[in-house]
Amino acid sequence: MSLKKPYLLYIGDAPDRLAVKMAQGVLDWRPDWCLAQMRRGGTDIRLDLPEMTPQQAADAGAGTLVVGVVNAGGVMPDPWVADLIDAMEAGLDLAAGMHVRLRSLPGVAEAAERLGRTLTDLRVPDRKFATGKGTKRAGKRLLTVGTDCSVGKKYAALALEQGLRAAGASADFRATGQTGRLIAERGAAIDAVPADFISGAVEWLSPANDDPDHWDVIEGQGSLFHPSFAGVTLGLLHGAQPDRFVVCHEPTRTNMRGVANPLPTIGQVIDATILLGRLTNPDIAPAGICMNTAALSEDEARATIDVLASEYQLPATDPIRFGVDAIVAEVLR
Amino acid sequence: MSLKKPYLLYIGDAPDRLAVKMAQGVLDWRPDWCLAQMRRGGTDIRLDLPEMTPQQAADAGAGTLVVGVVNAGGVMPDPWVADLIDAMEAGLDLAAGMHVRLRSLPGVAEAAERLGRTLTDLRVPDRKFATGKGTKRAGKRLLTVGTDCSVGKKYAALALEQGLRAAGASADFRATGQTGRLIAERGAAIDAVPADFISGAVEWLSPANDDPDHWDVIEGQGSLFHPSFAGVTLGLLHGAQPDRFVVCHEPTRTNMRGVANPLPTIGQVIDATILLGRLTNPDIAPAGICMNTAALSEDEARATIDVLASEYQLPATDPIRFGVDAIVAEVLR
Description:
The structure is a homodimer of 333-residue chains. The first copy, chain A, is an alpha/beta fold. Chain A has helices at residues 21-29, 54-59, 78-89, 108-115, 153-166, 178-184, 198-205, 230-240, 266-277, 298-312, 325-332; strands at residues 7-12, 34-39, 64-67, 93-96, 119-121, 140-146, 171-174, 215-218, 244-249, 285-291, 316-317. Chain A folds into two domains: 7-121, Rossmann fold, CATH 3.40.50; 140-332, Rossmann fold (3-Layer(aba) Sandwich). Chain A contains eleven helices and eleven strands. Chain A has a six-stranded parallel β-sheet, with helices on both faces. Chain A has a five-stranded parallel β-sheet with strand order 2-1-3-4-5, with helices on both faces. In chain A, helix 4 (108-115) links the parallel strand 4 and strand 5 (119-121). The longest helix of chain A is centred in the C-terminal third of the chain and has 15 residues, at 298-312. The radius of gyration of chain A is 20 Å and the shape is globular.
């Protein structure tokens, strides 16, 4: 999978920063691919990019409008659909990461056909998967897991890929969500796979590796403690059969995202991940803790991390703020 | 959902009895709906029904050919597809429970359109679901869980619906698979729902009930210990938020179906179900054990059941052979 670059990142009238995490993700990890943003009136959210219309972006060389915002309720508002058609008229392909297919939006398939544009649904599986087998595959695997959704599992995995490579190890980030797939240009959004094939899809995206010392760094999804998505998380854990896992956490979060449940502790996540992960890898063990401390001062962040490292006797860090050297050292030990 | 009755049950060249469990299921629980079977050369498997061609079945009043066999690898052999088209030519509608849609088979959609026949895919979701909320719903719920796939969770749930009703309680079987849906004519095959919506689909199919003493008896799927399908099982457990659960087991099974993993013990299933089920129902508790003892003599069956009842201090039975009175009494206690 490869989209025409660079991108115009569409964020519509996003209500908050979490709503634009797909746009922010590709901008943070593939800044060279991102040319401009396009907003609608009514949002204060912005990326660190110039604002352009589709025509301005196309004139400046853009290849694809990427819908980088979550649409509430899974329904795309009519004005957004009109913007997408304008973008195709201006010469841009479209990519999006919703459960609903781009071609099912009114007028989009017809415009794409008439104008010869490509529609890419990053979240919709573009292949069939087998059911999981659960048998051991060659090579090593690290999975990021979380106390909740949206706590930094993808950023931690991407930082660990970079860190392992910088330390001379062979490593590949394996995307399991639409934003990861946008960044890696491969992988599968496992939350959109038919439920029977969750672990099978993960076995496909992290296949046996000829190099026994190669690390697949697999992006986690959801949380074993999230009542909406724990099934996805467990199927991912079984398919990933990780040798090591890193727990990701956002210290200011008080409730599981979107539901009433309280957050589990990091210790509960470690215990549950080992208990359930042993089914496909009896040697599963934690390798560290990655905190998203963006809401804390640097002093608060360091203090929080030190407490956790001591409490759990594991390397702890904010992967973006302080790097992942200690976790990489633990993984390669 | 309602199919034209009675049915011609198609079992193709099924390799073994587990392959025809969909046909056997509707015959066991809805015998009045089943008129005849249709086989292909090469199988010794048969149902307790007369053999008919589609034309003979149509002449005898059949309304629908139901594909009652699992097709290896998810690909339907060409001769089977030819049989389906013959059946439509003879006047029959089609129903099937595969991941692949009937209309995607070569020539099937065209024949259905030309002849005015209805195609029903029992496994394919016919609606969109919301993500699970995890909040408590009114009414009571019982879930059947298992040491493995295909150990009798659906039969146990159907027997418990009957038993609860016979004891004067209000109870409804809630189907979560294609065979259950064929029997109940409602529900959803949750293993075919996009992974994000497993628990949400279960919340939909077992909604809040105005009667606080009403029991939804929810059909279990897979096993928390099956490396291919545990994600489905966990999402189902969280969506079902059961007050009570019944563990189903097949005592001659040595390996998890289709994979190399050993079977868990009933005690492991009880512990894991309570540990993980507490997330959406802190009061979850076991109510009994249902054994499929078809492979045992009656004496062996009684002895096996007595040992389990004593070991786990729970009512134990073979729901088909010995009834479910003891479990019903425990549930209504």
